[in-house]
# Entry
Amino acid sequence: MPAGYGTWKVDERLTLGVSSNAPYGFETKPQIEWAGQVYARSSRVLSVNITPMAAYELTEKFSVGVGWQLQYLQVRLKSATGVPPIAANSPTAELRGEDYNLGFGATVGALFKPWEGTQLGIGYRSPIEHNLKGRLVVGGNAPTPIRANIIMPETVTVSFQQELNERWRGMGTFEWTHWSRFGTFPVFNLQDQVVSELPFQYNDGYFISLGTEYDFTENFTGRFGLAYEWSPIDEANRTPRLPDANRFWISAGLSYFYEDWLEVDIGYSHLFPESESININPDHPFYEGITIQGPVNDTNVDIVSLGARLKF
# Structure
């Protein structure tokens, strides 16, 4: 989903803004017939977050901002009811849920400029609870209406930017995400009976990055950065739905400025996930009576981004 951001400077101190992005989302689709099909045939998570916000400059050195999050979440999980070759052409069980009423949260932040050329920032995004409603379909049976409450985690971000000279700047970020609150979520039917469970049992996630940008000319600025991300998923909770792992990032980008009203940005990131394993056994929270083991390696991710900024 494309991301968008807009700001309006009301006066010398007050700025209003709005953002639109997709903070959570993934899609995986193994082969329809495979040994681990009781754990995953396909998985899809989609989110849309819109945040109106306001920032106020209290002094020349200190500014604060607040925002109100409105978030939509959709979940679709498919798995098989048996394992080949014992259960060839096994029917699919599909769990589908959406939060049509939206989830709500808050965001707050502060920016401090202790001296010229230095900026320190901190931001907090609150957890958001989603009341998912949908259906559970097993094979050709009639759909069962279901509901589940899921809480998406809060995030704390700390960043800095330091001018090294008139053209060169350095920056860094540390981020903590409270994924350990993402435990086991029961799924209920309309009679408040548990018909399924979503056992994630994640760990907290961390992200750290260092980067630099350099103004080659008045019209061109280049960027380069390195980052490392600690995934909330490890061998104790990894499944075929999302075989995530810790990863190293390398990123580069270029900005072109046309006069004072247009900026065009292009960026590229390559991710190097670490080689890990899937090991679903009786001690695994997702265990469904069938043990599967196997490596997760030779994976890589490429991200290309293109953006534009208009001033008027």
